[in-house]
Amino acid sequence: MRLPLQNFRFRTLICAGTVLGTAILALSAAATSAEPLATAPAIFPAPASLKLTGTGITLGKTVVLVRAGYVDAETEALVRRVLTDAGVGSVRTATRLPTQLDAVYLVIGTADASAIQAAVKRTGAALPTETEGYTLASHKTDDGALIVLAGKDGDGLYHAAQTLKQIAADDRIPAVTIADHPAMPVRGTIEGFYGKPWSMAERAAHIEFLAGMKANTYIYSPKDDVFARDKWREPYPAETLKDLGGLVAAANRQHINFVYAISPGPSICYSDPADLEAIRSKFAALRGIGVRSFYVALDDIEYTKWNCTADETAFGAPNETAAARAQATLLNVVQADLATAGHGALIMVPTEYFNATVSPYKTELAKDLDPRVVIQWTGTDTVPASISVADARNATKAFGRKTLLWDNYPVNDYNESAGRLLLAPYARREAGLSTELAGIVSNPMNQEVASRPAVMGLIAFAWNDKAYDAERTWKAAARYLAGGDPQTTEALLTFFDTQHLAPTFGNQPWQTQAPQLLALTNRVRDALASGDAAERTAALDALSQAADDLAAAPDRIRAGVAVPGFVTEAQPWLDATALWGRALQLTVSGLRAQDGGTAARFFAEAARLADEASKIRTIPGATRPEGAIRIADGVLDRFIAEAPGLVYLPAPAK
User: Which residues contact 175 (CB under 8 A, 6 or more apart)?
Assistant: First the structure.
């Protein structure tokens, strides 16, 4: 019997659907039992090249470690800690890599070792060729797995171990081939701010942080170290020198170049042999505790007068050109001393350290200064709003060499930054600057841990400026402080938004304050003005959620931040944020109120809390300059003050 055509089609679809459904169920079952989906790991700084090569490697309980050539103790210790933290119970050692792998083998060494060359070849990767570069390759075999960490040099191998630390978790690492190297040869920080210097413990913690981010430079130049500036001719007390020695040793172990800076400018007599000997003596003492890189700072001084009459005899009447000639004369001798001792280049910061304009001072300095001496430059201004490749190229022309950028962010030791933590992303530095700079160092805040979000961005930019993503790195910094906890991360980002303003020495900041909160308050203003009831409800709901988040963020941060020091440094800002958050909650309630009396009570209490919050001040002695704490200023305070005028509700009838 023939079925009607429509019935035939219906039965065909049923049969086809049954077959398709069965296939989907089979695929789903297979997917459930298969390896997890391979995804590219998030690595900061972003590597030059990363390629997934498989579905991932289970480390298991035992890993066999093979050293190829010389591996320094700190690098091996870091690799072992990474394996232990990932769940590996036993790390056995072997002297060679067998032909057939029956376990997970981890080979570490530098590219000049034949065993590394053979191991890299087995993974199909290429050896690193750039200074501080590395290759990290991992892939499965039939009965085991091979992981290779190959450094172009010892520094590169250490960076490879830091990358391994980022990608190893939960007993697994991804199957990847990473070929990586820094874009800039100098990356780090200069403790060069005015006010309370960091403690030795804070410096040690900061150096460890720098090492984890693949930085390589820490410059010791606190303006308030009297033995480096006001009393630069005097030797350090023995106890201070001992403490510095411990710091230098820690930096050297972690592949961070500890650079010691002296600031003799306010009182130096350039032509006096005794002053030259005082610098030599100070550097010799620091050399005795392991320092190998040195720096002479000649910033923030007068250069149109001499500190001694002998300089006028030696260099002529005081002016910019004579000052440059005198400085070059002194620095050239110091550079020669360093070369004789087998050390690297001397770094100096000139008296004209900002702008890229050709001047008599810069021209004379470029002409007279030993070309090996590195010159620091702060950009187009002391605190520049942006730095372009063209700016750096102009600086190269003006100073006669590529400059080392002293970036005055996130330093907060000037009047425009009073009462602020500077927590906006590191931004508005143009990709491609690596072609025109010798490197970048950040001048951080008096608050060491709170400086890390911005410093992390700067280091990531210096490592790979072409692939730098400011927003993504900023969020990664919040996750870092939160120890990976999502709720704490979100609380930190809420708090960061209230400290987003990045000031300059002028009236125009180079990053705006509280952009997320500003968007929400502006939406409420527009919704109220439009008369659209649905949009008004939606806008107030969104702002209400933001107010709840703001009020709750301080307690979440206090409970969840994993990096010691942040909560202590940020204490008054967190206290003020809680009050401002509550004030915003009350303001939203006032805007939602149905009668004028209720609204007035909400608005009045919001104003009282805002006034209380505005009176909280910075921790005495912890910050220069001190001042009232600022939380989303110009956004939050303005909205709370103006909110009562955005609605009209008649007073209740008596």
Answer: 38, 52, 53, 54, 55, 56, 57, 138, 139, 140
One domain, residues 196 and 310? yes
**Same structural domain for residues 81 and 134?**
yes
Per the structure block, which two tokens stand in for 151? 């450094």
- pLDDT digit string, tens, across residues 71-102: 999 999 999 999 999 999 999 999 999 999 99
Q: Are residues 72 and 221 in the same domain?
A: no
Which amino acid, one-letter code, is at 449? Answer: V
Residues 6+ apart with CB under 8 A from 249: 290
- 388 occurs within a structural domain: yes
Closest CA to 459 of 222, 294, 256: 256
Taking the alpha carbons at both ends of the chain, their separation in whole angstroms is 89
Please give the torsion angle defined by the CA atoms of residues 291, 261, 438 and 434, in that order, rounded to the nearest 10 degrees: 100
Residues 444 and 565 in one domain: no
* Element housing 10 (H / E): helix 5-33
pLDDT tens track for 469-503: 999 999 999 999 999 999 999 999 999 999 999 99
Q: How many domains does the chain have?
A: 3
> What are the angstrom distances between the C-alpha of 548 and each of 288, 544, 552, 577, 581?
56, 6, 6, 11, 7
Q: Does residue 85 sit within a domain?
A: yes
Alpha carbon 275 to its chain centroid, in Å, reads 37
Q: Lowest-confidence range among 36-40, 287-291, 569-573, 615-619?
A: 36-40
Beta bridge partners of 149: 108, 136
In the predicted model, what is the mean pLDDT of residues 276-284?
98
pLDDT at 281 exceeding the cut of 50: yes
Nearest residue to 590 (alpha-carbon basis) of 612, 578, 614, 607: 607
State whether 476 and 519 are in the same domain: no
Contact 425, 493 (CB under 8 A): no
Q: Indicate whether 418 and 347 sit together in one domain.
A: yes
One domain, residues 529 and 612: yes
Q: How far is CA 100 from CA 96, 114, 236, 292, 598, in A?
A: 12, 18, 59, 45, 79
Report the pLDDT averaged over residues 337-362. Answer: 96
Instruction: Single out the residue of 106, 160, 109 nearest to residue 133, CA to CA.
Output: 160
Domain hosting residue 620, numbered range: 515-646
Query: Residue 599's closest CA among 651, 522, 529?
Result: 651
Tokens of 328: 């070059």
Give the pairing of strands 293-297 and 257-262: parallel
In this prediction, residue 654 carries a pLDDT of: 63
pTM check: above 0.90? yes
- Strands, E, within 514-605: which ranges? none
**Within a domain: residue 266?**
yes
Helices 200-212 and 452-463, packing angle to 10 deg: 40
Question: Which amino acid, one-letter code, is at 43?
Answer: I
Pairs from 307-312 (Cβ < 8 Å, separation ≥ 24): 307/266, 307/267, 307/268, 307/269, 308/269, 308/271, 308/272, 310/269, 310/271, 310/272, 311/269, 311/270, 311/271
| Cα separation, 170 vs 630, whole angstroms | 41
DSSP-derived letter for residue 564 is T
Query: CB–CB of 455/411 below 8 Å?
Result: no
| Secondary structure (3-state) at 232 | coil
The DSSP letter of residue 631 is: S
CATH number, domain of 539, equals: 1.20.58.460
Does 77 lie in the same domain as 55? Answer: yes
Read off the CATH number of the domain in which 156 is found: 3.30.379.10
Q: Is residue 23 domain-resident?
A: no
